Amino acid sequence: MIEILAVYKFPQIKKLWGCICITLVHSASSPSILEASDSDFTMSGSRPNIIFFLADDQSRSDHRTYGNDKAPTPITEAFSKEALVFDKAYTGQAICAPSRSMLLTGLYPIRNGCFINHTAIRPGLKSLPSYLKSLGYDVILAGKSHLKPSEQFPWTEWMRPVPKEGYPRPALPLDAIDDYMEKSKQPFCLILASEYPHGPYFKESQFDPNEVVLAPFQYDSPGTRNYASRYYQSIDEKENEFDAILKLIERHGLERDTIVFYADDHGVSRGKFTVYDSGINVAFMVRWPEKIVPGRSDALISFADFVPTALDLASRNSEVSNASFFDGKSLVPLLEGKTQQHHEFTYAVSHNQGIQNRHIFPQRAIHDGRYHYIYNFNSNERLSKLSIKDPTLHFFLKFGADKHKDQPEEELYDVGVDPFELNNLAKNPELTAKKIALKKALFKWMKSQNDFLSEEGIPPIFKVWGHQLDENAPRFKYKIPEKMLGTLSGKKVDPHLISRVVID
């Protein structure tokens, strides 16, 4: 038996809000959908070990597998030739904590509550370790956590990253992982969260700055190229860690019994903190020798799919893919080759408050695999339509809007011909019907998530730990007039306790 417990305080959707306890129980007539069974399962045999290697802050475009022949990614490239490679895999938010929380809850950031970096998921929600432990798995996190609160991520063990002299960030605890693989007596799930290539990058690099590949939106200068070469050096270190993991799997004879997922948590350049494809479209590959046929898939998938997939693999019962509680669904039919389609849409959110740049600029986005629609809730274009009586609120909203003065209310990109999203088609009359349809679907999804934003409402001011809007931060080049310091007290709301907030 496995229990899914969710606690919500949002009044709008009665079936989700209040205190909801969904329990999937074993009955005399049929097994629980999350209990191990001997049902028809094409990936037959023992329940697999599950390994998910997650790189930290690497752009999809900085992989050889995804078209950059200068990228220092020989290990992931070799791995991709043995794996099913997904070209349209998406995280729901291009920031570390929200992306990881989505991956490990199966819920998009607004719904799970972690949509501001460094914050926790909603009270009462369960996560991957709780689910899989009830199915007899060890569930271990090795490396970076960035997940809160700890009691809602009850790992069998957390193998903390280890300092490495002369390196800018700590390393995966390879010795501890090796020891565990040697002694393990039961199926396991290892979440291997590398701290690379996340900055700070190496001070020196073996990669020639003149050979790095810059994205079209990056300013080509010696400084940019030097910075990119040091980023390449950190990618190289991530590759070394992934190589070490693959060799451990081989040395312990676990290849045939282990399904390995590889993904980047989100992109970096023009992507991190945003909803552009450069941030949310991620590298994603899955290998299971003799079970998964290597190749490429253009099916639209999401980070929310991993928890249902892991439960499907662990329970050996494909009904779990229909568990409606999750925002994702099992990838097993795709991995088995039984279907070539998955989601009709994926979605993304961004809310800058609570991160280093401190500017209020919430975004929501929808993707159909080709067209990408973005709505900017605090653009100057939209702000001019709102009536905000409180001068303090108006100041901070205008401050955020001005920091993004070049971004309109709506954006629409055809990523099939414009993968770096340089040409906004939102005002193209030939695509008006497409834009309207995507916008309608986006706001319908937002309502289902009980999003605090609406088409007419004013973005709220959140109460968060650190990075406050009404205090100066010279380190981040954030400076407001002295008269505005400390003026937001009493005007901020708890992000976990709100539904729709209208501030007048």
What tags apply to this protein structure?
504 residues; 24% helix; disordered N terminus; 2 domains; alpha/beta; Alkaline Phosphatase, subunit A; disordered C terminus; single chain; Arylsulfatase, C-terminal domain; 12 helices; 8-stranded mixed sheet
Descriptive report:
- With 504 residues, the chain is of the alpha/beta class.
- It folds into 2 domains: 47-346, Alkaline Phosphatase, subunit A (3-Layer(aba) Sandwich), CATH 3.40.720.10; 351-484, Arylsulfatase, C-terminal domain, CATH 3.30.1120.10.
- The chain has helices spanning 74-80, 96-105, 109-112, 128-133, 174-183, 222-251, 277-280, 306-315, 332-336, 380-383, 391-403, 432-448; strands at residues 2-8, 18-24, 49-56, 84-90, 138-143, 157-159, 188-197, 258-264, 281-287, 295-302, 346-350, 363-367, 371-376, 410-414.
- It has an 8-stranded mixed beta sheet with strand order 6-5-7-3-8-9-4-10. It has a 4-stranded antiparallel beta sheet with strand order 11-12-13-14, covered by helices on one side. The protein has a two-stranded antiparallel sheet with strand order 1-2.
- Strand 12 (363-367) and strand 13 form a beta hairpin.
- Helix 5 (174-183) runs parallel beside helix 6.
- Mean pLDDT is 88; it is low at 1-41 and 500-504.
Count of helical regions: 12
Q: Using the 3D structure, state the CATH architecture of the largest domain.
A: 3-Layer(aba) Sandwich
Strand order of the largest sheet: 6-5-7-3-8-9-4-10
Given helix and strand content, the structural type is alpha/beta
SSE pattern:
EEEHEHHHEEHEHEHEEHHEEEHHEH
Query: What gyration radius follows from the Cα positions, in whole Å?
Result: 23 Å
Head-to-tail CA distance between termini: 48 Å
Q: Tell me the CATH superfamily of the largest domain.
A: Alkaline Phosphatase, subunit A
How much strand content do the residues show? 15-25%
Based on the structure, what is the oligomeric state of the protein chains? Answer: single chain
* CATH topology descriptor of the largest domain: Alkaline Phosphatase, subunit A
Global geometry: globular
Helix content: 10-25%
Largest sheet: 8 strands, mixed
